[in-house]
Amino acid sequence: MAIAKAERLMNLALCLLGTRRPLTKRELRSSIEAYIEAFGPGHAAAFGPGHAAAFGPGRAAAHGAGHGTPGGDEAFNRMFERDKDDLRELGLVIETVEGIDGEIGYLARRDSNRLPPITLDAEEAAALGLAAKVWQQARLAGAASGALQKLRAAGMPLAGDGEDYDAGQPHSALEPRIPAHEAAFEPLMLACRDRRPVVFDYRKSNAARPEQRQVEPWILECWRGHWYVAGWDRERQAERVFRLSRITGKVRSRQGKFTAPVPDHVTVRETVESWAGETATGTARIRLRAEHGYPLRSRALTVRDLGDGWDELEIPNGHGLDAWLVEFGPDVVVLEPAELRADVIDRLRAVAKG
Predict the structure, then answer these.
(1) Whether the Cβ atoms of residue 130 and residue 159 lie closer than 8 Å to each other
(2) How many other CB atoms are there within 10 angstroms of residue 284's CB atom?
(3) How far apart are CA 235 and CA 232, in angstroms?
(4) Number of helical (H) and strand (E) elements in the chain, helices listed first
(5) More confident of the two residues 132 and 298
(6) Which is it for strands 302-307 and 282-289: parallel, antiparallel or unpaired?
(7) How far apart are CA 189 and CA 63, in angstroms?
C-alpha cells in the first residue's frame, strides 16, 4: 500500500532539516521510503551504504526491479517538485545550492525555519485565551485548541489556566467565555472573511413573522452576551445591524461581489447601544418582577421593593428602549413616561396579533 502523502512530506522535511550539507534528488530518492517504494532507490544513498533503511528497511529489494527507467525518473522528478512546492507553501524555507560538480542540492537550515521566542504580556495572553473561547462551538475549535496547547507547552500561561495564569492578579480567578451557540455564527463568520453576500430570514423584536434580508456582512461583534452582524442591507440600501439570535433558518451564501464599500470602522456596539437606550436622554420608571430582568437591574439608577414580588426601577431612557423592554414580556410594566408605555404596548399588540 502506498505511503500517505502527509507521511512522505514529513519524511522529506525531516531529511532536509536533519542534513548538514545539501542533498541531491537522487540522495533523497534513496533515503525516503515513499520514493523507494514508488520509484526504486536510484543510484546512491544519502548517508552512506545501508542508511536508506532508516526510512524503510528492505524496501529497495522488494520494489527496485523495473525502476530507474527514464519514465520512472521523470515521474519521480515531478513528484519531488510537487512535494518541494507543497513544503514551501507550508512555510518551510528550502535552499537550493549548486555543488562543485554542478549538481543541485537541497537543505532546510534550522535557523531559517525556527520561529523567534514568543513573549506575551498578561493582557496579550488573556486576549489570546479569550479569543480561543469564541471557537468552542465553531469549525476552528480544533485549531484554536491546538494553538493554545502549543503556547502552554512553551511555558506561556493563558487565560483560564487557573493559578498558573498571572498569579496574584485580581482577574486570575476568572475564566472568560464568549459563547457562540447561534447556528448563524459560523456561516456569517466565513461570509465576513470571504466578502460573500448572504441571504437569511430575520425576525425583528416587534414582528411576529420573519422577513428575508439580503446582506453584505462586514463584521461580527459580541455585546452583552449577544452576537451581532453589521453589513449593507441591499434592499434598504443602508447599513444595518442584526442580532444573530433573531435569524431564523439557514444563512445562505450568494454569488457575486459586494456592491457597497466596506467602511474602515464599523460602529456595531454604538449602534446597538442606541437601540437599547444606552445613549440616554432621560429616565423611565418601570415595574419589574422580583428575581427577573438582571440586565435591567444592572443599569438601574434606583431600585425600590414594592412587595408582592415586584420592584420599581428607574432606568436610563433613550431611543430603542421600548424594543428592548418588549423582550422581557410579562415581567416588565412601564409606568412612565407615557410615550414609552404606549410604544411598548403597541409592540406587544403587534406581536399578539401575529
Answers:
(1) yes
(2) 24
(3) 9
(4) 12, 11
(5) 298
(6) unpaired
(7) 49
Asked whether 68 and 36 are in contact (CB, 8 A), the reply is: no
Residue from 213, 163, 153 nearest 188 by CA: 213
Q: C-alpha grid cell for residue 84?
A: 518541494
**Measuring CA to CA, how many Å separate 271 from each of 98, 166, 197, 240, 274?**
62, 35, 21, 9, 5
Measured distance CA(223)–CA(229) in Å, rounded:
11
pLDDT in tens, 42-75: 654 444 433 433 444 444 333 444 445 556 788 8
C-alpha distance across the termini of the chain, in Å = 64
Q: Is 7 exposed, middle or buried (0-12, 13-18, 19+ CB in 10 A)?
A: middle
Concatenate the DSSP letters of all residues of 86-112 into one string: HHHHTT---EEEE-TTS-EEEE--GGG
* Mean pLDDT confidence for 233-237: 92
Residue 254 and residue 227 in contact, taking contact as beta carbons nearer than 8 Å: no
d(CA 294, CA 227): 19
Predicted TM-score (pTM) of the model is: 0.44
Q: State the Cα–Cα distance between residues 61 and 53, nearest whole angstrom.
A: 11
Question: From CA 328, how far away is CA 137, in angstroms rounded?
Answer: 27
- What are the E-state strand segments in the chain? 95-98, 104-107, 198-202, 211-223, 226-233, 238-243, 247-253, 282-289, 302-307, 310-317, 332-336
What CA–CA distance (Å, rounded) separates 252 from 246? Answer: 15
